[in-house]
């Protein structure tokens, strides 16, 4: 049960930043058809390009939901340049586990969606 | 003979295996069945005793291999109630069998035709027809299901018309478990259009119940060896002789020819016309052993056993408020497959926790995304039964689901 560390279970059970954002936030949805995970990211950038507010909604496995919860917490206050530089290894560090082939797509879906939102 | 799953299980080497010191609870036979020793032994025997090509040599080894291969064809034909073994074509799997029909019959359809399928199909019975529909610019229609996952027969009568060239549908749904009333459907279709070619995807039926192609009245029927205790790499296409004769070849090359000149070729007769190149000889021999194994036990007994297990499992699962089950409520209407969701937990997480106890279930869309969309779900868990399963496997599943719910949600119903 190594995959489901306490921090992952905690974020899965009590996701942070879950919900929508009012106002002019950028909204991007992505899904992972092969396992049916879907996620919507809402990002509000300041004029200086800092992430003022971020939230997510979606359904998926514990890994994808925990990843979204942790990432949204992590990127708040960072610049979009900093966030765009985040990679797989950073997600692994946040989750505290090495991603297996079977779960890599679940864990990276939130980051990919965030990147897409920032490119918009 | 008394039906004893524990005795049957002893014929399957993998079920003797322990992982992390625990036994294997195999509940994914819908994806692929396990293989008994006799099937494994037969493929080994081929490679040890006569590992040579068929139809080519006049030497003893080749004659033995050829005889074995053709005897297998006869055995398979008999097993599906077909008196003419030339109507049995060996392919790679049911998917290839369906592609073969699409690329031959489908490709030669007249303009203004339409093709009809159903929303409960496996991707293998949707995508090949989408290709034909796109290429020939002809409609592809899908028959809907009701709330219990049964085909809506009144919708069938709306979708089939005078121009319906092909109706292709599954005998048993690989997700819902629904056993479709094939004979009744064919009778209704033939009343509307007697020329509609009927294709049956029997990948989930041939392994689990006795059927006869003559009795069903279909034109084509396809299935895979690996879901019926046989090796991977072999599939079957059964087709009516007069149709096989008219069809153009699917693939071309060696063995499917009668005569080749540099300018032109005369094709061989069916079934050889559709078996280009050296086939999976060991696999075909193994399939015949699988048929033998199933017949020794009896398809009627296998069906009864699976029905009993399904009644048992459904009865237990239906009592749990955390479980949502898809498909018919009555076990008599379904095969030994149950798709469900544990509310609030993604199927991948369920399957992952079950794996801690070597409980093998499928999670995801089971190659039936359109059906999942129709059910308005992203994915599901699926447990399926075969002759080697018994009530202790169902109990293990239930315990595993309880563990999963407690682990993620800290509660159980």
UniProtKB/TrEMBL annotation, chain A:
One of its GO terms (biological process) is iron-sulfur cluster assembly. It comes from the Bacteria. CDD domains: IscU_like. Pfam families: NifU_N (PF01592). This is SUF system FeS assembly protein, NifU family. GO terms for molecular function: iron ion binding; iron-sulfur cluster binding. PANTHER family: IRON-SULFUR CLUSTER ASSEMBLY ENZYME NIFU HOMOLOG. It comes from Candidatus Gottesmanbacteria bacterium GW2011_GWA2_42_18. Residues 4-119 form the NIF system FeS cluster assembly NifU N-terminal domain.
From TrEMBL, chain B:
Its cofactor is pyridoxal 5'-phosphate. SUPFAM superfamilies: PLP-dependent transferases. Its EC number is 2.8.1.7. This is Cysteine desulfurase. It comes from the Bacteria. Catalyzes the removal of elemental sulfur and selenium atoms from L-cysteine, L-cystine, L-selenocysteine, and L-selenocystine to produce L-alanine. Residues 25-397 form the Aminotransferase class V domain. The keyword Transferase applies. The keyword Transferase applies. GO terms for molecular function: cysteine desulfurase activity; pyridoxal phosphate binding. PROSITE patterns: AA_TRANSFER_CLASS_5.
